[in-house]
Specification:
A hairpin with a 2-residue loop joins β1 and β2 (83-90). The longest helix has 16 residues, at 2-17. 27% of the residues lie in helices and 35% in strands. The protein contains 4 helices and 6 strands. Strands 1-2-3-4-5-6 form a 6-stranded antiparallel sheet. It is an alpha+beta fold and 166 residues long. The protein starts with a helix and ends in a 6-residue tail after the last strand.
């Protein structure tokens, strides 16, 4: 019994001596534009909006075809079929401000519940989600413009991101 324990003990040390050590290359993590992404993030609005905002956040201005050392600001547009972002960047690639517009996106639960509660019997025909961001002031506007229909009647309603009717 003592020999078996001794053999297992020695075998355990031998396995560790054959372990390989792999050195991975360094990874540079850029914390650029995290403030923008934190401010404009709105859960429940849809993956297309989040993907376009993330793309604008990760856009590498200095390695793009538009970059030249002589300019202080750059205006770059990003498009998807149902939305667009016009972003202003400084020469270091930091987002200074954005104007965003998305059509017929998924409404957050709070907004949908507010519309259902305040306008029962009406159906949502269309919606537009607007975002204005400024680096110094954060998000200046997150607003939904919603077109409601009942029969042949139509009504337009504005709400904020929490479903408060404006």
């Amino acid at each position: 019994m003592k020999k078996i324990i001794l053999v297992l003990f020695v075998f355990g040390f031998m396995i560790q001596s054959f372990a390989q050590v792999i050195t991975l290359p360094e990874v540079e993590v850029l914390a650029r534009n995290y403030k923008y992404l934190d401010d404009v993030n709105l859960p429940g609005v849809g993956s297309a909006v989040e993907a376009l905002q993330r793309y604008a956040t990760e856009f590498d201005l200095k390695n793009s075809e538009y970059y030249e050392d002589e300019y202080e600001k750059y205006f770059i547009s990003f498009f998807i079929p149902d939305g667009k972002i016009l972003a202003a960047y400084d020469k270091d690639g930091n987002i200074l401000r954005t104007v965003e517009k998305y059509k017929n996106m998924k409404l957050p639960i709070e907004v949908a519940q507010s519309i259902t509660k305040n306008y029962s019997g009406w159906t949502i025909a269309e919606n537009v989600y607007l975002v204005n961001y400024h680096d110094n002031r954060g998000v200046m506007k997150k607003e939904f413009k919603i077109l409601l229909e009942r029969g042949n009647r139509r009504m337009r309603v504005k709400t904020d991101e929490r479903g408060n009717i404006l």
